[in-house]
């Protein structure tokens, strides 16, 4: 018998994690990267403290058929669990759409999952040359960008996201991403300034306020390259 999905957290109702849909979020336990701005550090370990079983989640979903539109698998990094695909298939069988939040840590795993997805929020970590220092893992840049290319080629409905802190990605490097993204057909990029409430390395990242003037300047620059910035 294959192992059950390891669930580290659960949100029964959300309107923001799958655009224009009522959804619940299943937070999958475990992540191989150690991004300094991670705001779910309790989900990094392979085994977590939370006692939420997958059968309990399924029981909840059976009671929400016709009330919820979708189930979003988040993390941690959900794609690292072999049990994710069977879980997605069970969710589909109940009539829900399937969403996923992923950074594409393992491109081969993401490739297997893409045919089952209705929507994907993809976490692009930054310019290739800056990603390994952000994640703390050598080779993560290649994996992240390879998965990014897989997402674009798949035609699955998606949102490209970038978590931004000027200490990790200088503004000049952020601007430098506009043309490469436009060339790959990206028309929408969601920029998420680092949240400091509960980050993995909060003490090493200064609190930075992104001013409205700075946002507008970036909006104008990216728009000139054909990419619209959305701030979250």
Describe the structure.
Keywords: 4Fe-4S, Iron, Iron-sulfur, Metal-binding, S-adenosyl-L-methionine. Its cofactor is [4Fe-4S] cluster. GO terms for molecular function: 4 iron, 4 sulfur cluster binding; catalytic activity; metal ion binding. It comes from Atopomonas hussainii. InterPro entries: Aldolase_TIM, NrdG2, Organic_radical-activating, rSAM, rSAM_sf. The structure is a single chain. α3 runs parallel beside α5 and α4 packs across α5. With 232 residues, the protein is α/β, with parallel strands linked by helices. The chain contains eight helices and eight strands; from the N terminus they run ββαβαβαβααβααβαβ. An eight-stranded mixed sheet has the order 1-2-3-4-5-6-7-8. Helices cover 32% and strands 20% of the residues. The chain is globular, with a radius of gyration of 18 Å. β4, α3 and β5 form a beta-alpha-beta unit. The chain has a single domain, classed as TIM Barrel.
Task: Compose a concise summary of this entry.
By secondary structure, the chain is an alpha/beta fold.
- Taking the alpha carbons of the first and last residues, their distance comes to 41 Å
Biggest beta sheet attributes: 8 strands, mixed
Strand percentage lies at 15-25%
Helix fraction by DSSP (H/I, runs of at least 4): 25-40%
Estimated structural class: alpha/beta
Mean pLDDT: 93
Extract low-pLDDT stretches. Answer: none
Radius of gyration: 18 Å
Shape: globular
Strand order of the largest sheet: 1-2-3-4-5-6-7-8
Q: For this structure, what is the CATH homologous superfamily?
A: Aldolase class I
Quickly count the domains: 1
Q: Which architecture does the CATH hierarchy give at level 2?
A: Alpha-Beta Barrel
State the CATH class.
Alpha Beta
CATH names the topology as TIM Barrel
Report the count of strand segments: 8
Q: Helix and strand string, N-terminal first?
A: EEHEHEHEHHEHHEHE
Enumerate how many helices there are, as a single number: 8
């Amino acid at each position: 018998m294959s192992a059950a999905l390891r669930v580290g957290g659960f949100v029964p109702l959300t309107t923001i994690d799958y655009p224009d849909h009522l959804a619940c979020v299943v937070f999958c336990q475990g992540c191989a990267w150690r991004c300094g701005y991670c705001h779910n550090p309790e989900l990094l370990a392979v085994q977590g403290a939370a006692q939420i079983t997958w059968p309990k989640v399924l029981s909840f979903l059976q009671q929400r058929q016709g009330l919820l539109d979708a189930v979003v698998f988040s993390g941690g990094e959900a794609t690292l669990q072999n049990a994710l695909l069977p879980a997605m298939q069970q969710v589909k069988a109940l009539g829900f759409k399937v969403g996923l939040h992923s950074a594409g840590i393992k491109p081969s795993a993401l490739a297997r999952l893409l045919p089952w997805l209705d929507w994907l929020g993809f976490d692009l970590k930054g310019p290739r040359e800056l990603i390994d220092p952000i994640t703390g893992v050598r080779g993560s840049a290649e994996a992240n960008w390879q998965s990014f290319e897989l997402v674009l080629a798949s035609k699955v409905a998606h949102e490209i996201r970038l978590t931004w802190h000027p200490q990790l990605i200088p503004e000049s490097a952020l601007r430098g991403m506009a043309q490469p993204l436009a060339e790959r057909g990206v028309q929408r990029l969601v920029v998420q300034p680092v949240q400091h409430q509960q980050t993995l390395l909060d003490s090493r990242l200064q609190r930075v306020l992104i001013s409205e003037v700075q946002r507008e300047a970036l909006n104008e620059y990216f728009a000139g390259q054909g990419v619209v910035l959305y701030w979250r």
